[in-house]
Amino acid sequence: MARLSTRQQNRMSRSTFAFPNERKEPLNDARHVRNAIARFDQVEGVSDAERDAAWRRIRAAARKYGVEVSARGWRQLTKGGRTSRSRSR
Q: Is 59 a member of any domain?
């Protein structure tokens, strides 16, 4: 599956992204959902409330596309003591 181009991302609805205000981490298929989980810790400049909302969107997309998520919440993904960033399986 090919990577989304900037043009394709710009045409996507904001609701398709885990972080819609930043238009980061598209959730349009299983591959992108897994990628959003893996890169969750790389999104900077967002509040914990935005991370909570993004995690809910990721979980919903995971159910939709049949992606298994073992973490109960994004805080379980925290790596290296960074409280404002997280990591996936």
A: yes
